[in-house]
Amino acid sequence: MENSAFLHFLTLLLFKQKSKHIGAVLISVIIIFLLSAVLFLSSSLQHSLLSALHKQGDFTVTRVQAGKPVNTPVEWVDKILDINGVTQVASRIYGRYFFAPREKSFLVVGIDFFDEQNNQALQTLLKDVDLKRFLSKDSMLVGEGVRKFLQAHYFKDDFTFKTPKGTFKKVNIYQTLPRQADLMANDMIIMPIDLAREIFGLGEDEVTDITFNVPNDAEWDNIISKLHLLFYDVRVIEKREVKKAYENLYNYKGGLFLILYLVSIVTFMLILYQRYSMVYSTERKEIGILRAVGWSIKDILKLKFYENLVIVLVSFTLGVVLAYLYVFVWDAPLLSHIFLGGSNLANHVTFIPVVKFGVLGSIFLFYAVPFLAAVLIPAWKIAVTPPKEAML
């Protein structure tokens, strides 16, 4: 059979039955769009969080009493630094300040701005900060969500904190943290450690926790054992535990979309059933006529394969492109709130494009193979029957 005649007939077939094909394409695009959007969103969030976590200390140490975290003595810093294999030990103040009138909270992080470990973790956030000017008076850096909240409540240039001692502390709003850090820093306030210590009512010899690094991964378990021998009331949090928690969190939230996946599969099965039924009704006579005029079984299967391959490729491409635009250009409205949550300050994150082509390839195969099989198998059953019987 000549290729030009085959392509001409294939084109005519696609345009002649365009209403049927458009319906299949629309439903397929919805299925692929939902799956791809969840995939893109989950991958982007995990990538951003794990990238930020990579710059944090390998271990975080806090003191516990009666199973609850309490203030940690600053003197622990020197004791931890004496352990062989430990580097970049840093203390910090880390806690939530509740704004009671509106039942909202800010994550306050107090750090030593000249500490090497803290500067490494916050170098992206602090790259445009003039430390000399910043430290000249009581100042703080605020996340985008904090800035909008404070401005909405008439705190444009400064905010007054209420300390546990009943006094008030006015702090200047120096600068807003970069928008690209909103995922981690949207409700965050960064300030000097002494200022945070005053706001939370801690003593001069107290911090909330201590972070440090252990460059040799093989020593991690040994370091943990030494810490428990050195301090009887210590809790040690490993970075790999936090990493696993992040992964489980977004894998769990992705699992919430299992119901959407099931709905998609049911819809997909309806498409397959529709295609199966059409072959036995409207297209049965068409295949019989083609066999009668000399088309071979191979030619008919080839025609049906390419006809539906065009539908598969168009549907998959449109679904993936729309999902990419929805997540990485339009910032995934509605869907992002499910992953980010909205119980505290509203967060508007700009997602970093992360595409896992292996998973997209799997989606394509699981979509394309059943779709093509649902058409080719019935077409083959008709093609092998005598033309006269097929046209009845």
TrEMBL record:
It comes from the Bacteria. Belongs to the ABC-4 integral membrane protein family. LolC/E subfamily. GO terms for cellular component: plasma membrane protein complex. Coiled coil: none annotated. GO terms for biological process: lipoprotein localization to outer membrane. The chain crosses the membrane at residues 21-41, 254-273, 309-330, 350-377. The lineage of its organism: Bacteria, Pseudomonadati, Campylobacterota, Epsilonproteobacteria, Campylobacterales. InterPro entries: ABC3_permease_C (IPR003838), Lipoprotein-release_system (IPR051447). PANTHER family: LIPOPROTEIN-RELEASING SYSTEM TRANSMEMBRANE PROTEIN LOLE. It is found in: Cell membrane. Residues 259-385 form the ABC3 transporter permease C-terminal domain. This is ABC3 transporter permease C-terminal domain-containing protein. Keywords: Cell membrane, Membrane, Transmembrane, Transmembrane helix. It comes from Sulfurovum lithotrophicum.
